[in-house]
Design goal:
methyltransferase activity, three-stranded antiparallel beta sheet, Beta-clip-like, 199 residues, 3 helices, binds S-adenosylmethionine, globular
Length: 199
Amino acid sequence: MASEGQSLVVFECGPACRCGAECSNRVTQRGIAARVKVVRHRQKGWCLHAAEDIRRGAFVCQYAGELLTNAEANRRHLIYDCPEYHSSGRPPPALLVVREHLPSKTASLRLNIDATHFGNVARFVNHSCDGGNATRVLVRQTGWPLPHVALFANREILAGEEITMSYGEVKADESTLQTAPPCYCGSSNCIGLMPRDVA
Ligand SMILES: C[S@@+](CC[C@H](N)C(=O)[O-])C[C@H]1O[C@@H](n2cnc3c(N)ncnc32)[C@H](O)[C@@H]1O
C-alpha cells in the first residue's frame, strides 16, 4: 500500500498542551470513533464495514501499526511483493507509506506504518479505485515529533457499507500489468488491478 502526493495535514493539541483528553481539539486521540465490524469477502479477504451511519467529515480511526525506517520498509516491501509470501497463508500486507511535504516544500517526510503484524481495525480497510469513502489525513500533535495517520469519512457512510480508501494510483504500465494483484473493488473506473507499492 502506498500513497503518492500530498496528504491533508491537520493540527491537534498534544503532549505540549495543558489541556486534557476532553479537549475538543483532540478528535483523533480517543480511540475508534465509529462502530465498525469486520466482514469476510470471498475475493478481498477481510473488510471493514460501518456498523452505524457515519457522517461526512467524521473521524473513523487511526491507522495504527509499526513505525518503520525507510530501510526496513523497503526490506519488507521486497518480502511482501514475493508471490511466495501471498501463497504462504501469512496475513495480507498492510504496509502504508505516506509522505508529508514539509513547509519548506523542498523536503518531504516519508512515514512507513506497517499494520501487517501489529495494528488496529484500519488494517482491514480495503482499496477502492474511486478513492473510497474514507480519506487518510496526517495529524500533527503539538509537542509530538511525528504525525499520526487518521481516517475520516469523506461522505456519509451508511450502516452496512464497506469502508474503503485509495491505496494509490493504478498506473497501467507494462510492469503493473504483469505484477499488480487483481482488484475487486467494483468501481466503475477500476481496471481490475490494484496499485503497486511504491517505495
Ligand atoms: C491492508 S490489507 C486489507 C485487509 C485484507 N483484506 C485482509 O484480509 O486482511 C490489504 C490487502 O487486502 C487485499 N485487498 C485490499 N483491497 C482489495 C481490492 N480492492 N481487491 C482485492 N483485494 C484487495 C489485498 O490482498 C491487499 O494486499
